Fold these 2 entries.
Entry 1:
Amino acid sequence: MNSEHQFSDGCERALNFERHINRIVIGQQAAVRNLTIAVFARGHVLLEGQVGVGKTTLLRTVAQGLGGRYQRIEGTIDLMPSDLVYYTYLDQDGRPRVDPGPLLKQGEELAVFFFNEINRARPQVHSLLLRVMAERAVGAFNREYRMPHMLVFADRNRVEREETFELPAAARDRFLMEINIAAPDDDAVLDQLMFDPRFHDVDALIEAMPESAIGYQNLNALGAAIQQRVQAAPALHKYALELWQATAQPQSYGISVSDVDIGQLLQSGASPRGMSYLIRAAKVRAWLEGRDSLWPEDLQAVYAPTMSHRLFLNPIYAYRREVLLPELVNQILQRIAAP
Amino acid sequence: MKRRRYLVKVSRLAALASAATLAAACAGGPSRPVEAFNLETPRPFGYQIGDTVPMRILVQTRPGVQLQAASLPKPGPLNRWLNLRRIELVEAGADAYRIDLEYQVFYAPLEVKALTIPGFALRFSQYGQTVEESVPPWQFTLAPLRELIARQDVDGEYLRPDQPPALLSTAGVRTNLALALMAAAVLGLKLARQYGYLPWFARRSPFKTAEKRLRRLAPAELAAGLAALHSAFNATYGAPVFGHRLPDFLRAHPEFGQIQSELVWFFDYSNRFFFAVQPDLASADCERLQKLCGWCRAIERGSR
């Protein structure tokens, strides 16, 4: 009874959390829903979009809402892994000092680690991030630092490609979702963004975000409870399996993408980790919808953000990735029936 | 002396010539209404039974003289052996007539025999008066087809049997029949497809298949029934239909909008049946499913 109460109560708080974000970052309901799912699925998020559409604002708002400590770092070309772990300086007495860097400074209280412009950082930094994201731990100063409540939020803009480093496949695979943020297309929202002074001062705007009643330190337990509680029926297992196989062999599901040899399009299908992330995200979505069983629409809702960045196209098609991938994902969802 | 005699001769000749001219002028003068009458006939020999004999009459009248069409003979049998097959009157220029006649002979002579096509009179009217111009009878000879006494040779009588009559042409009737049959076949196919009798067109009537499946549904086979109905919706849409994408389906097939609430119920029911871990379905609602399928079938057929 107690867990039942906690369960439904948590859902109400999560929806409340989502509503508050939507009040601060307007016109991005789909992205906010996906971010909410990621937070409760305990997954790292990569945001991608044009410059100035509110990626950073959105991530800061979520961090503010979650509570706990929050650190950010800007990706630059000369950023080195050690810059995340420690920094050196001369203190008042002129003696050299070594202090923990942004990753370690908050200790176990770190709730959100925010990596701005991640694709400007070098591959060395990405590889450090690999371990941090996978194990939520990093070795430094002859000991292991653990950050059990940490979520990595990263963003990258897609305007410039010069002096950037594409994220390695392994690092991308560790993100639960890649969420695309586009400028809102609703005229009323655009008008509000231009003229309402509330949106001109970002810091004050984010300050208005109340801290969620859930508490960042309870999120891991709640996330695990959701995964335990929301169940999938055999028919759904079959549907999810087909969704997976369709990424490996789209041609055998009658999937076709315009002027592409579908057998040559993908280098490989989705990874097992990717599929388990998909189910994790889908379960959170079912929970937010107030259900304790997984339905196909849950999988469909989170399929694009969880799968798109895990599918690797053949190099000859890679330059058209932004057109081909959404079409492929759409085709997969359109072709596979359940039951 | 000689010179004087010559002069006398010349003057006599001149008198004779002038008299002849006068006479000619009086003879062909305005008293003759038919200026020229010419009967053109074919060869008068070498005919056999059944042959046709064409004739042509060319008449040139004075202006104002009318040929009375009633004086022309009527087509048909003229006597026991002669038939007038055809007669045609053509006005060939001003006051000129051409009359084409075609006779057919049915006389069976035992030896070469002379026969006569009877003459007749053409009547012309001029200012209330009637003038006649007679067409003279025409004589020709007719030959028999065989000897007087038919010989017998090794193969029997040398007379050949009668030629079988030529068949009437049925080409037009056949064409019409073929067109009518084709039209009937096209209409029949269309009707059969409309009613879903063609199994290879089953894609067009997926609800018929589903209806068959649902009709003999036991409550224990609810999964199969739901799947049949799902596949009917998928086949109609051309892609899987999900409950949360129902608006897309209805946009593509607005005719199903009239049973929208039932469709919402169906997709929700199916989701709960297939995907809920502990289905809380009160009872297997086969009847409602069958009714829904019947409605869908009616919509698909266009009768609702």
Note: Residues 2-27 of chain B form the longest helix (26 residues).
Entry 2:
Amino acid sequence: MTTPPAAAPAGPGPDPAGTLDVAWARRFVAEAAQVVAENRVALSELDRVIGDGDHGENMARGFAAVTAALEKAETATVGDVLKLVATTLMSTVGGAAGPLYGTAFLRAAKVSDAPAVDGQGVHSLLDAALEGVVARGKAQVGDKTMVDAWHPAVEAAAAAADAGGTPAAVLRAAADAAAVGAASTDELVALKGRASYLGERSVGHRDPGAASSVLLLDAAARAAGEA
Amino acid sequence: MKKLINDPEAVTSEAVEGFVRAHEDLVVQLDQLVVARAGGAVRGKVGLVSGGGSGHEPLHAGFVGVGMLDAAVPGPMFTSPTPDPILAATRAADGGAGVLHIVKNYTGDVLNFETAAELADAEDIEVATVVVNDDVAVEDSLYTAGRRGVAGTVLVEKIAGAAAERGDDLATVAAIATRVKDSVRSMGVALSACTVPHAGRPSFDLAEDEIEIGIGIHGEPGRRKIPLASADEITDLLLDPVVADLGLTAGESVLLLVNGMGGTPASELAIVYRHARRRLEEQGVAVRRSLVGNYVTSLEMQGASVTVLRLDDELTELYDAPVATAALRWNL
């Protein structure tokens, strides 16, 4: 009888502690639904100042519907959950946020149709989501939109993943960068969306879509179980 | 906030239910929040679908009927409908000759109609889209989401609807809708703000003696706030940019639409019309057709908009063609 070499490293193969699975995706939805509900009034208040005052209502309605849909659904992969989030948000949120978040989650679902997602996988998922937002909304960094939260989030996720970070670490890096990015929208003049009609008058106010993006990314990081 | 409502959350659904029952000879409500022509899609005719946030009544459900829209999609108050009901409306309007989506240029409307058009395409329903952007108040459209779709939308729906009714194919109906869109400009003023029922307070702030020139139909800001002035002076501030943007010259023919925002008496709209017509005639422009009333409103907002459409013989003929809807009816 031979024994395997004791020093053999686990290698880059599946590591239960280093990947996210469908249970994470479900925890993420629960965390997101809760934090969106808690911030319903705050998000609508941001939107009232430079938009039409319904972003919190719309997002809360959407995530309540996602929670209900998920209770009845069988999901095997992260992608299954994200796809359900995508289609439900598209059909319940309305406004610009519905198609934007819907497309983001749909693109993320396409690259996470696997039982387990590692740190690089988390980066790919976030990158796909950003591409979806840009494809649909055609906004660039600096236009005072959710792209100003998502773009730095994806850059930070790439750096964390390249450094060998766990999925939780990658998500934390993304959420923190998104928060800085969202704060940067305070000083920007809106060039896209309804706030753009305010021109200079949009300065001094945070973009509601960037703010809700931070809530979602932070929920994803917390669901991944970092302290 | 004092409003004649039951539950702020139920305003749209209850209003649509009442509207449909009041006009049961013209329209039906589908399972989703969609208002379609009674009798269903017309075989072989291009279908016309429009929609957008509620609060602008009679737009769009008030324009469903013979000679105009086949289906309308009322979204939540001031919020675009989602792709699902837009797709349902597109199916209901499809008589096998394709469907034209008439979309007002707002980010939410454009994105949701775009998504619905993709879904319809997957079901082999051919969809063409025209995005209406007649609001000249938005000066720097390069640095914004672009000019907004306002009262000119009614004229696009009327004239494209007549083209579809006479049997034009989808490409032709879309081309005529685009021609109307390119020939129509509007600008509005608000004397007071409006209150979205579930928000419970006015969507923007105006002092007692202040008005906002260039207001959007959701209370988006316009070019500037100024002190209240006379009707004639305000009409000049609305008409001049419209005429300049159209590049109107002496000898041309136009349609003049003075639209109320919901809280303006008919008499005040007539006063605005009177001056706008005089000013156009002084410039040698012939006002061949006129429309004065509440067509694209902003809840109870006090205010009005002035819309001018450059007419040619074909557009005039299509405008005159028979129409039977809740809000427009003639030549039947």
Note: Chain B has two domains: 8-182+320-330, 184-312.
